[in-house]
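Methods — Computational structure assignment.
A single polypeptide chain was analysed. Its primary sequence is given first, followed by the predicted tertiary structure written as structure tokens.
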Amino acid sequence: MVDVPDGCVIVYRKPGGGGFDAALAHLGLGVRVNLRDAPRSISELAATRNRVAALIGHTSDYSIVMVGDGSAVSFTLGVVEVGVSGNLASAQADLRGRFGDRVTVSVAQPLAG
């Protein structure tokens, strides 16, 4: 993920990325670049997101209404954000039991329609 506050490019990347840092340094972007460690790679987040999304419509006590992995929170904390309706405590226990610290679970409103 790339963020650009105050003219500084912040790049979240998984450490040990096979020369990524050196390649970025040679680009000569003309802006300050701040490299920050990300706990998980985009592919790791996508794999978790896909596993969570596969549960949509297959849970009891709660419904998964949103699954996301593209926010600054997802990249900086290395989590997939899961929004649920219904029994929040049950959802948190179930999803944390399945995915551990790879998810964060909160209340979300079901989509209208």
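Note: The helical segments are 20-25, 42-53, 72-77, 88-99.
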